[in-house]
Design brief:
The chain is α+β, with helices and mostly antiparallel strands. The chain folds into three domains: about 130 residues, 2-Layer Sandwich (Beta-Lactamase), CATH 3.30.450; about 100 residues; about 160 residues, 2-Layer Sandwich (Heat Shock Protein 90), CATH 3.30.565. It is built from ten helices and twelve strands. Strands 2-1-5-4-3 form a five-stranded antiparallel β-sheet. Strands 7-9-10-12-11 form a five-stranded mixed β-sheet. It has a two-stranded antiparallel sheet with strand order 6-8. The structure holds adenosine-5'-diphosphate (ADP).
């Protein structure tokens, strides 16, 4: 470029201001590609940039060539000539359109081209003048964006399908649980009824073992009934999304403690709580169930003479963090994730009755409130359950 600048200076200094020379200098130094063709799309000339792009050394070498003589693909050449013909037939320019160009080394470049018709003094079209700038980088980014948008669209569609399948599966699960619950209640009631009848009428005819077996039947029936009820409320958490409303956690926990009063008194437990004074957006019934399950576990898995349950909170930037600690038997750290799965129980039934569904319901409720639940535990100090609730939840 600096050589060319020197040449320009030389020409100007020597006052060689011939139009042709100036024209050639401009043509060879503008950052654009220029060519012109006759009525048959045969090249009549081009600037240096275009000659190099076509694999030639000098602009003159283009004269007499057609697009089929150059490195472009057959399809590109056909397309170039189709546009040439359109411009020449109509006499109207084609402005700023995008097209590809295959270079002599086989690379694909992207061009933004303008073609204008050339007229003679009789206003007859005698050829076209073409100019273009290279936009490969921009085009590649654009193509990449289009590809990414397509991938995103496909992923979204797959996600929608998966969501639909998941919702369907949840609805099926609820129907299944509902049917199981209702269909099993009937035979369970029959077993319970007849066991009670046998107990009241014929108990004397059974020896000690026989009486114990009858009690096993009653226990089994109760457990089965609780299990099916648990399954139903667990599956309902997915299908019935519920509404979030402002609620006072003090009131919720107070009510839970009132509901559990006989149990608390029986175990001699002491429950203290310190909860936010401000109202919190939540599904109050479900938060009640969450506290109820955690408190019940704290009482149940506890061999201390003075069971202690302490509930506390901490306000964080985006969440409320609650902790519920007990002085019970503790949970092994290995069961960190397992314990929140339905029907997972760590202790024998005879020691601690239960269905194994309580904590999985807690996890679902916490997830519904866009939070997490976890625990820390040791055999000596009992267990601390932690759970969070997102502060600004919106109803869907
Ligand atoms: P369930 O109480 O009906 O057995 P959960 O889902 O509520 O079912 O609890 C699953 C298991 O986790 C319990 O069987 C018990 O082994 C253990 N667990 C839950 N809470 C506690 C606790 N506070 N202390 C010790 N173990 C607990």
């Amino acid at each position: 470029m600096s050589d060319n600048l020197n040449t320009i200076k030389e020409v100007v200094n020597k006052k060689f201001l011939g139009t042709d020379q100036i024209h050639n200098l401009v043509m060879d130094n503008i950052p654009a590609y220029v060519f012109w063709k006759d009525r048959e799309s045969v090249y009549l000339g081009c600037n240096l940039n275009f000659a190099i792009a076509a694999g030639l050394t000098k602009p003159e070498e283009i004269i007499g060539k057609t697009d089929y003589d150059l490195s472009w693909t057959r399809q590109e050449s056909d397309s170039y000539r189709t546009v040439d013909k359109k411009v020449m037939d109509s006499g109207i320019s084609e402005l700023d359109f995008e097209e590809s160009q295959t270079t002599p080394s086989g690379q694909t470049k992207w061009l933004k081209t303008t073609k204008i018709p050339l007229f003679n003094s009789h206003k007859e079209v005698i050829g076209i003048l073409g100019t273009y700038e290279e936009i490969t980088k921009r085009k590649e980014i654009e193509l990449e964006l289009i590809r990414n948008a397509e991938i995103l669209k496909k992923t979204n569609e797959n996600l929608k399908d998966s969501n639909f399948n998941l919702e369907q599966a949840n609805i099926d699960l609820e129907h299944f649980s509902y049917a199981t619950y209702h269909d099993l209640q009937e035979p369970l009631k029959v077993i319970e009824g007849f066991t009670n009848l046998i107990k009241s009428k014929y108990i004397d005819q059974f020896d000690k073992d026989g009486q114990e077996y009858l009690n096993f039947i009653t226990e089994g029936v109760n457990r089965m009934s609780k299990l099916t009820k648990g399954m139903l409320s667990y599956s309902k958490l997915d299908t019935d999304k519920g509404i979030f409303e402002l609620a006072d956690f003090n009131k919720i926990v107070n009510q839970v403690i009132l509901d559990l009063k006989p149990r608390i008194e029986e175990s001699g437990a002491n429950i203290t709580y310190n909860l936010p004074n401000e109202q919190i957006k939540c599904q109050s019934n479900r938060i009640g169930l969450l506290f109820s399950n955690l408190i019940t576990n704290g009482l149940k898995f506890n061999k201390s003479n003075n069971p202690l349950i302490t509930i506390n909170f901490e306000e964080q930037e985006n969440h409320w963090l609650f902790t519920l600690s007990d002085n019970g038997i503790g949970i092994e750290e290995n069961y960190k994730d397992l314990i929140f799965r339905p029907f997972k129980r760590l202790n024998t039934r005879s020691d601690f009755p239960g269905s194994g569904i309580g904590l999985s319901i807690c996890k679902r409720i916490v997830n519904l409130h866009q939070g997490e639940i976890w625990f820390n535990s040791s055999e000596q100090d009992g267990t601390v359950f932690h759970f969070t609730i997102k502060k600004s939840i919106v109803n869907k």
